[in-house]
């Protein structure tokens, strides 16, 4: 099955890469790509029932990580749509479920809330539909752990799919803030000693609450960046409103044109 796992990773990266190129999070866009490459045919082929179930379990386990961090929001949406398509098109009865570790439940709920806040209602609908159909199997570990299991290398992450942290977050770590707080405290103490020996108020040159302000600035920027990442894609409601406005404008234009033609006919007895 190791060979199938590598090829499945390639197939998943292919469809998610195409979805990423559209710069959209709409389900209709993903479903068009799914139909174009006939991705449901991944389950086709002569296979014994027991092997078919094992293969289906492998397919779902390969696709499941794309729903979770560290992947970007759009890739996680694509991963959700991918799991929905695979779960719905599998040939096993009863259906194989998607393994989800309990530690990832909170992250999944935050993902759902982000989609709600950004008005990506098709994302919310697909996720709740999977939950309603009990498509997830909540477990202690994302993959089964066997006795004397040989330690293997984890799944390679596609760099273009990963939501990279900002440069500020990479630089401002907890250890660095603690070290900066110690240095700043030592600097303040030195300033107090010097101020006691002179009449000049040089202590006013010290930046008060430097570390808390720096940490607050980084958190503010992180939240802004996170909101920008989610709201970069236009919400479904605004797209629907634009479509309704376009339909109304066309209908109004046709009505005005029809009324004008009637007035012209009545006036000139045409």
UniProtKB/TrEMBL annotation:
InterPro entries, per database record: SNAPC1
Coiled coil residues, start to end: none
Sample GO molecular function, one term: sequence-specific DNA binding
One biological process term in Gene Ontology: snRNA transcription by RNA polymerase II
GO CC terms, sorted: snRNA-activating protein complex
Protein name per the record: Small nuclear RNA activating complex, polypeptide 1b
Species, as recorded: Electrophorus electricus
């Amino acid at each position: 099955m190791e060979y199938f796992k590598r090829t499945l990773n390639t197939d998943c990266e292919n469809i998610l890469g195409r979805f990423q190129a559209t710069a959209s999070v709409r389900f209709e866009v993903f479903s068009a790509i799914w139909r174009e490459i006939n991705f449901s045919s991944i389950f086709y082929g002569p296979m014994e029932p027991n092997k078919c179930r094992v293969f289906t379990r492998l397919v779902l386990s390969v696709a499941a990580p794309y729903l979770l961090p560290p992947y970007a929001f759009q890739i996680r949406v694509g991963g959700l749509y991918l799991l929905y398509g695979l779960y719905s098109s599998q040939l096993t009865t009863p259906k194989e479920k998607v393994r989800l570790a309990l530690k990832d439940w909170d992250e999944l709920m935050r993902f759902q809330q982000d989609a709600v806040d950004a008005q990506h209602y098709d994302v919310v609908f697909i996720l709740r539909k999977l939950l309603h159909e009990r498509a997830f199997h909540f477990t202690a570990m994302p993959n089964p752990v066997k006795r004397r299991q040989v330690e293997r290398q984890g799944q390679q992450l596609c760099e273009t799919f990963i939501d990279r942290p900002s440069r500020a977050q990479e630089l401002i770590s907890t250890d660095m803030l603690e070290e900066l707080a110690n240095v700043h405290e030592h600097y303040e103490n030195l300033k107090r000693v010097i101020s006691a020996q002179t009449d000049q108020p040089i202590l006013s040159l010290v930046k008060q609450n430097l570390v808390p302000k720096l940490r607050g600035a980084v958190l503010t920027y992180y939240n802004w960046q996170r909101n920008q990442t989610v709201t970069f894609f236009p919400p479904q409601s605004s797209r629907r409103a634009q479509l309704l406005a376009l339909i109304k404008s066309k209908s109004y234009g046709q009505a005005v044109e029809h009324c004008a033609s009637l007035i012209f006919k009545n006036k000139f007895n045409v």
